[in-house]
Amino acid sequence: MRTDITSGFRILRSRTRRPALAVLSAAALLAAPRPSAALIITPTFTPAFFTSFGANAAAAQASWMAAANVFQTNFSDNIHINITVDAVADASVFGASSTSILTFTAGTGYAGLQSFLAADAKTADDATAVGPGGSVSLADPLGNNAADHRWWLSRAQAKALNIFDDAVNSDGTTRFGAGNAFTFSGPIAPGTYDFQGVAAHEIAEVMGRAGYTGRFSANVNNVIAPVYSLADLFLYHSAGVRGIPNVGCPDNTNNNWFSIDNGTTLLKRYNDWCANNLDTIDWASGTNDSFNQFSSPGVVNGVSLIDLRQMDVIGYDLVTTPEPSTLALLVTGMAGVAASGFRRRQKRRS
Q: By percentage, how much of the chain surpasses pLDDT 70?
């Protein structure tokens, strides 16, 4: 780890995640099934996971591992991502995550981060993002004053970018409310939610798919400054107009987009966090997707190709030709728009 540009790891818990994270006990260590890709996601299921889900624990466990396998199949980073999987018995949590964070200072720290991204560029999207006119600018887009801001990566991202050595420590936690009505496999039953889609959503957040957009602060060497994520670099309102340092409420309400080419091409709209004060990097409602801010009952929320492209440019190495069986997992249930009746029962994603 480059200690000259980092300040070590800390645990980040989103302010929307309740209850507060408690000390977790060890449990059975299970490896999700995986094909030939090098990425390995290893879950540790806590005793609370099994007691909370009860008779559904085995089904929930298999569903979580199926969600992890989508990432293992489609990314080739030679790393291990270690995730604690927890649950509560009631519905006070839908899906939530916490993750260890690596801090980069502004200016020279950003330059180091940009160089790691450039060195890791393997796909066409990576080349666009770090190249001339890409969203990952050569210079810190927020300026060089270290007192103004910080950049955050998850521990898993740091591994993927070869900033941090592969280690056995937990990289984060996913938590679920067993009191919610879930379908764990097969067609999603009416009135229930796609557990695999929720699990994929939270796993991706541990991997670093999170937006901070200056809403959190970090204290580094007694300097408190707002923080931004690597994913925030891809938040745009229009060509050349970033969604940072300020997302722009209320003037840019519901006008935040994912773009890898400095806003020239707006690929997918982000959640309107100005209206609900939730996550900035989750997608807006519309096509059913694991990375949406909200989930409706009775629908499959698969991991879509645009989701994989987002994960690719925030540090992971996308396998450019998914296996046919994997592609089926990705696009199942992705064609329709959720009916308005389902939206009455939307659940928040954390």
A: 78
